[in-house]
Amino acid sequence: MGIIITELAVAIGIPVLGGLFVSQLTQESIVTWYRTISKPSWNPPAIIFAPIWTVLYALLGVASYQVWQVGVGNAWALKLYLAQLALNFLWPLVFFNMRNLSLSVLVNLALLATSLATQGAFYRVHPEAGQLMMPYIIWLCFANLLNFVVWRRNPHGGEVTTTDAPSTVATDNPKQVSNRGEDYGPIGPTTASAEPRRAAPIRISNPQLAAPARSPMLRTLRTRQQVTARRAAPRMAARTMAAPRMAASAPALARALC
Questions:
Q1: What local confidence, expressed as pLDDT, does residue 231 receive?
Q2: CA–CA separation, 102 vs 162, rounded Å?
Q3: What is the pLDDT of residue 208?
Q4: What is the pLDDT of residue 85?
Q5: CA quadruple 53, 55, 61, 63: dihedral, nearest 10
Q6: What is the pLDDT at residue 236?
Q7: Other beta carbons less than 10 A from residue 256's beta carbon
Q8: What is the predicted pLDDT for the residue at 223?
Q9: Euclidean distance between CA atoms 41 and 124, whole angstroms
């Protein structure tokens, strides 16, 4: 009786302790990265995964023990069992530690296929052992669906890529080109889409023109004066710009005359 209990404990302990060891390796990513990625609304709360997997691993251990006890013709079934158990331990490392969601989908599909083959082999050796694997198969189907949806919702594994945020490329040119299609010079964007600079409004220094008109005659007079001031403004600006040039050329003209 003691030998039977020991063998059963070993059969249950292999998947349970193996799953516990792998969960310790992935604990950091579970509490940090996994909480930040996009998940569907029907994603189960993280707190229930550990109890569910503990029960499923225990059922696997009991099923493997029953197949082990038969002895005859169980070699192939036990090899399949070990293969699916290895894939089971590999998947969390790929998903959580490597954060390779596309590869985790493939590993999960291989795990489901191997588990179905294991269940069939167990059922042929010991029908009750095959039935004990049914909850495990159902959960794997759900896990594959969840894994696929999470992968589709996080095509980059939940990591921020360089294309998600604006960036600038430094060149020898004093300007910098941004990925938004804008050239950034010393004073800001200089793209063709930027609005053209508007001419500064002409300020009239005469206080009488700025005062409000109280009669039609005054309004007409003020309008004419404003028009005249606007027309004269370009000529005044040209004279102002030409004055320094004339001052600079005056000594040369004086020397020529002398």
A1: 76
A2: 20
A3: 52
A4: 97
A5: -110
A6: 72
A7: 7
A8: 73
A9: 39
Residue 43: CB partners within 8 Å, gap ≥ 6? 146, 150
Which positions ≥6 away from 179 have C-beta within 8 Å? 163, 166, 167, 168, 169
Asked whether 39 and 153 are in contact (CB, 8 A), the reply is: yes
What φ, ψ does residue 42 adopt, rounded to 5°?
-90, 15
Please give the radius of gyration of the chain, using alpha carbons only, rounded to the nearest integer: 41
Q: Is 37 left (phi over 0), alpha (psi -120 to 50) or beta?
A: beta
Q: What distance in Å separates the CA atoms of residue 53 and residue 85, rounded to the nearest whole number?
A: 12
90/21 Cα distance (integer angstroms): 12
Closest CA to 235 of 187, 257, 207, 202: 202
**Residues present in the chain in total:** 258
Q: Give 10-residue mean pLDDT values along the chain (258 residues).
A: 86 97 94 94 92 97 95 91 98 96 98 98 96 98 97 81 44 42 40 47 52 60 72 72 63 60
